[in-house]
Structure formats: structure tokens, C-alpha cells
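thread from #wetlab-drylab

HS: before we spend reagent money on co-crystallization trials with iron/sulfur cluster, can we at least see a predicted complex? here's what I'd submit
DV: go for it
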Amino acid sequence: MSSTGTTPLRILLANPRGFCAGVDRAIKIVELAIKKFGAPVYVRHEIVHNRYVVEGLEAQGAVFVDELDEVPDDVPVVFSAHGVPKAVPAEAEKRKMIYVDATCPLVSKVHREVERHQAHGRHILMIGHAGHPEVIGTMGQVPPGSMTLIETVEDAENVMPQNPDELSFVTQTTLSVDDTIEIVAVLERRFPGLTKPKKEDICYATTNRQVAVKEVAKQADRVIVIGSRNSSNSRRLVEVSEKAGCPARLVLRAADLDWDWLAGATAVGISAGASAPEILVEEVIDALKERFDAKVELVTTAEEDVIFKVPPMLKDVA
Ligand code: SF4
């Protein structure tokens, strides 16, 4: 990557950024399923929220659909990293389909928490975003009416559970750490007996990426986040940068860069959502190097070594 521009520019590269262990595993699961069963392998929902990743898997023989009824009975199907309501594997079993569940183990952990609360007779508040597949999947672990979605501080102020003494909460794994603290504070004030998660539901990857981008935002005058519009944790990285006082933009790849917006910047921060591949980060750095005399500085706030195993069904081809 050689620099051809003459205007100096510091590129502050957030570390950690990009792929998390759950996304890495989900992509591997689709690739291994194709290796084991041959193409096509159907995937219910975008395996991870990134068009580039999805198109790469389509080229290998994956077929993405929204619902299980679009999958023929005799073709293997993979469920996405975001998790699915219980009704989905139940339907696959009824149809005697071969299915592989790529739900991130950290999302599955929240599913088990929800089941536990329900077994103890507690109503469950889910802090998350309406319509996100992870929220649909988590709320689909228990019968309808067992959970209430809380999206904002106002929702937390207004929720009226039938029995406030038997109340618990869980969260989506990809929320803003700071916003969630505010919502939880309201719930704890209103419901002192509230049962909390033993360990934070917001996952290590979300937390680490937000801490790193916040550090970068302190030193940069613009922040570029590489990720898709439908990626919750990528959008949170933009919000975290802006809350830290640095204007930020979400781009899928280098072609989306807004050069007018970058004009006059002397230090540009770069991060990437957990579903964005490193190759797109490199593409953005290369594009900046073509226009500026750019030097990359790594801003490291944590080291990650988390790896999740693939399901036993695919071990023979792993
Ligand atoms: Fe799992 Fe967190 Fe990655 Fe989601 S962002 S797939 S919960 S590690």
C-alpha cells in the first residue's frame, strides 16, 4: 500500500475491529456445510449482516432465503448467527430436514437465560431493537406474552408489568453499552427486585469495538465505520463516535467514501462492525492512501483470542 497523495493524514485504526468469533464461526459453518453436503446449501436469513460476505458465500453455492418454507425438504439449511425462534428448528425437524444452527454461542447463552427466567415464573424485559432478527429469535424462545421489548429510556419509565416482584431482564448482544446502562438504571430504580443477567449480555466483541472506537474518536476529526446499514453493532459504532464528539459515517466499502466530508481532516479514525471483513478495511485504507500522504497508527484497547468451535455435525470436514 503506497501513498501517492501529498496532504498528510493520520489514519487511526481501531483495534479490535471487524469480525468477531461468532461471525467467523457462522461463515465457516456455511462453507463447511457446502463442503460436506455439496451446493446448494440454503441459509435462512443473511448469515451475518454484510452484503460482501453474503455475495461471497452465494458464489460458493449458498442460497439465502427469508423463511424456512422457501427451502426444499431435501436440501440442508443453516440458521444465521443471530439466532432463531424455537418454532424454526421445530419446523425443520417436523419436515425431517438437515439443519445446522449457526447461532452465536453468546446469543444461545441469552436464549438459555430467557428459558430459565420463564421456568421461574418471571416476566422478562428484553432491551433491544424491534424487528432485529436477534430480538425475534430471543423472544421466540418462550411463549408469546412472556416478554416485553424495551427499546428506550421512555419505554423503561412506562412499562407496567403485571407482577413487578417477579421480573427479570436480558439484552440484545449488540447494543450501545452506554445507552443500555441508562435503561438498566431506570429499570432498577423502578423495580428493586429485578433479576439481572449473571454476566453482561452485551457481548465481548460489541463492548471491545465500542471502547476502541471511543478511544479513536477522541483523537480523530472524522471516523469511518465499515459495515452494513442493517448491522446493529456497526451502527452503534457510529453513534459511539458521535457521542464522543467526532463526526462519523458508516460505509460498506471504499466506493461509498464521501471525499467532501473528509476534506480538511488531519486524523481519520477507522473501525469496522463485527460482520465486516478486513479486506474492506484494507480497501478503505488504500483509497485514503491514494488521496493523502497517509500513515496508519494502530489504537489498541484490548486483545482478543476468542474462538468458537463448529457444531459436531461438521467436525469431519473442518
Ligand atoms: Fe456473537 Fe457478539 Fe459476534 Fe454477535 S457480535 S456474533 S453475539 S460475538
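DV: The mean pLDDT is 96.
HS: ok that's useful, forwarding to the group
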